[in-house]
Amino acid sequence: MPSRHRATPARILTAAADHIERVGLYQGDHLWQPGRMGNTAPCNLLHAWGRGVRAARPRWTERGEAWDIFQRSLFDSLVVLSNHAHGNPVSPVRWRKLGLTEDAYRRTLLWCWTDAPGRTTAEAATLIRSAAAPYRSDADHTVPGCPTLQNVV
């Protein structure tokens, strides 16, 4: 059975912004809150992005193209959100110097963005929504690649 909709970076990021608005922003090292996980516990930018990924994921019964598009959208949404949080494209030099993979560095960047003093839920949701803005949510994401930063910031 085909998807009702295809995964796009905009769908992932919009779901992430909706989630963080609903549960709030959490700062600090102690995210574990028994009884308040998943859909109810406050989260950081990385966890909100992860909830957006889960919301846009195709059904497990689907095969082929839907998953290929999802994988491209997943990576592109991480790239555009981390670039947006960083303020410009993240240079590969950054993760290479630390001996990290690109994915690990970008995820760490999202976690660290959250912990800057004074961050608010509204600021996090605005950041995520502005990162999603260059993408049309109804467009198929069949070609990999992110919009240029000039179109994002």
Number of helices: 7
- Basic shape: globular
Strand content bin: under 5%
Overall pLDDT level? 79
Q: Low-confidence segments, ≥5 residues, pLDDT <50?
A: 140-144, 146-153
Kindly report how far apart the N and C termini lie.
38 Å
Question: Which structural class matches the secondary elements?
Answer: mainly alpha
How many individual β-strands?
0
Helix content: 55-70%
Largest sheet: none
**Which sequence of SSEs, written as H and E, runs from N to C?**
HHHHHHH
Which radius of gyration do the C-alpha atoms yield?
15 Å
Descriptive keywords:
single chain; 153 residues; mainly alpha; 7 helices; 56% helix; disordered C terminus
Question: Layout of helices and strands, plus pairs?
Answer:
Elements: H1 9-23, H2 45-56, H3 65-86, H4 92-98, H5 102-114, H6 121-132, H7 149-152
Helix pairs in contact: 1-2, 1-3, 1-6, 3-5, 3-6, 4-5
Q: Could you describe the 3D structure shown?
A:
- With 153 residues, the protein is mainly α.
- 56% of the residues lie in helices and 0% in strands.
- The protein is built from seven helices and no strands.
- The C terminus is likely disordered.
Quick summary:
It contains seven helices and no strands. The chain has helices spanning 9-23, 45-56, 65-86, 92-98, 102-114, 121-132, 149-152. The N and C termini lie far apart (38 Å).
